[in-house]
């Protein structure tokens, strides 16, 4: 039997629809009136345009799902010109949690021959993300090559077995070269083949978080890491920059990245890394290169003081490297402290702006926000914290007061 709707039912459903729309509109207007800073992110001024000519890169960390979601990407490309994959380029993801085989061999620059896997790194995810970056015409910050966390245990152990003993330093040094070479050459080949040899990944965090939180002049390396357990010194850090320099195209910027960079012990440890890598720059054999200190900047709402950024940034720049703020977010905020968030982002962006790169001098070349919207942040994890610039509700992405704090700093005196 053919089902038909009675006239009344039709009228009723039309009326209901109108009421629903009207009340949605009323809610929208109400929300906008009570909070003029909460607007559709596509109607807000563009953050990247506001910072054009100040910072070369205005970035955001996103995940694969967001990259493949047109609604998310509409706003990403409106407000940002750089993306950091939140997880997808980390060693663990590149190994794709697989058991590496030992079917290949690799002979290092130092002439050490080791067995290496042929089934990892797995580039399928990376390649699809490179393709998306190309479609959206947006660049990526590579994160990360050498890190103690989110790296498969098997990488450090005999026969690439997660329960094996740690390998010796000579083997690990060769594995480090193999991994860095394999990833960097893959990206360079992809760019050569599919992107007219133009960079999609413009910078890499070569080493992440290798300095101790309680660093002092004599003991400044993080010790709770398999890298440290094998090397017991900074060779794996310095050598990573030698290998990255060997295998990355010359226009790819090489970064050391860490958190709490404003703490004096951390700052001092990082300065030692810069000195260590720079000391290798004129070596005939495997010269190293370091271009950037990445200050993660997972900050609290009041600490560290903006002035401690001045102290650290000046010391890094004096060593002739650029600085990038790589993972900015603000912990300890809630919807009730919206204004605090606005103030905090404003004072931080004003501070960063003082170091904009001018006439080929060293300065801050990029600022990246660690996540797209509060609800997705690693800090809030679906809870009540509001660490970022945008929020997302049923109607989509909206700006927050914090967004305007960041935006207005661009035109502030
Ligand atoms: C560190 C890492 C990031 C990320 C955050 C937490 O800062 O560098 O990749 O894991 O922790 O999300």
Tags for this entry?
413 residues; alpha/beta; 8-stranded parallel beta barrel; two-stranded antiparallel ribbon; 13 helices; 40% helix; 17% strand; globular; disordered N terminus; binds alpha-D-galactopyranose
Structure, explained:
This protein is globular. α7 (169-194) runs parallel beside α9 and α11 (306-318) runs parallel beside α12 (338-353). The model is unreliable at 1-33 (pLDDT under 50). The termini are far apart. β12 (390-393) and β13 (396-399) form a beta hairpin. The protein is built from 13 helices and 13 strands. It has helices at residues 7-34, 47-50, 64-67, 70-79, 91-95, 124-136, 169-194, 226-231, 235-247, 264-278, 306-318, 338-353, 401-411, and strands at residues 57-62, 82-85, 104-107, 113-116, 139-146, 201-208, 253-258, 292-295, 298-300, 322-331, 364-369, 390-393, 396-399. The chain is of the alpha/beta class and 413 residues long. Helix content is 40%, strand content 17%. An eight-stranded parallel barrel has the order 1-2-5-6-7-8-10-11, surrounded by six helices. Strands 3-4 form a two-stranded antiparallel ribbon. The longest helix is centred in the N-terminal third of the chain and has 28 residues, at 7-34. Residues 143, 208, 259, 296, 327, 378 line the site of alpha-D-galactopyranose (GLA).
């Amino acid at each position: 039997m053919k089902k038909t709707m009675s006239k009344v039912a039709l009228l009723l459903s039309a009326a209901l629809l109108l009421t629903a729309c009207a009340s949605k509109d009323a809610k929208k207007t109400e929300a906008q009136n009570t909070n003029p800073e909460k607007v559709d992110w596509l109607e807000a001024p563009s953050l990247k345009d506001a910072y054009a000519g100040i910072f070369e890169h205005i970035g955001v960390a996103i995940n694969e799902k967001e990259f493949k979601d047109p609604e998310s990407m509409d706003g990403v490309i409106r407000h940002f010109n750089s993306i950091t994959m939140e997880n997808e380029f980390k060693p663990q993801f590149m190994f794709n949690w697989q058991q590496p085989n030992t079917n290949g061999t690799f002979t290092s620059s130092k002439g050490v021959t080791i067995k290496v896997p042929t089934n990892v790194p797995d580039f399928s995810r990376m390649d699809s993300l490179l393709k998306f970056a190309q479609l959206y015409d947006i660049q990526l910050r590579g994160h990360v090559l050498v890190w103690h966390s989110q790296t498969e245990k098997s990488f450090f152990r005999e026969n690439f077995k997660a329960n094996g003993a740690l390998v010796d330093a000579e083997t690990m040094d060769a594995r480090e070269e193999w991994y860095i070479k394999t990833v960097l050459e893959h990206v360079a080949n992809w760019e050569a083949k599919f992107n007219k040899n133009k960079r999609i990944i413009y910078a890499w965090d070569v080493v992440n978080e290798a300095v101790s939180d309680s660093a002092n002049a004599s003991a400044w390396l993080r010790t709770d890491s398999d890298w440290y357990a094998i090397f017991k010194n900074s060779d794996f850090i310095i050598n990573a920059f030698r290998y990255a320099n060997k295998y990355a195209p010359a226009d790819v910027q090489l970064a050391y990245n860490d958190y709490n960079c404003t703490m004096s012990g951390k700052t001092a440890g990082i300065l030692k890394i810069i000195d260590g890598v720079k000391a290798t720059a004129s070596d005939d054999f495997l010269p190293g290169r370091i271009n950037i200190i990445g200050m993660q900047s997972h900050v609290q709402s009041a600490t560290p003081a903006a002035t401690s950024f001045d102290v650290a940034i000046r010391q890094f720049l004096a060593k002739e490297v650029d600085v990038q703020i790589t993972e900015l977010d603000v912990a300890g905020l809630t919807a009730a402290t919206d204004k605090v968030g606005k103030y905090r982002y404003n004072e931080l962006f004003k501070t960063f702006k003082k170091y904009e790169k001018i006439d080929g001098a060293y300065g801050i070349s990029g600022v990246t926000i660690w996540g797209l919207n509060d609800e997705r942040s690693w800090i809030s994890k679906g809870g009540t914290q509001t660490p970022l610039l945008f929020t997302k509700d049923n109607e989509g992405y909206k700006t927050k007061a914090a967004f305007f704090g960041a935006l207005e700093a661009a035109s502030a005196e």
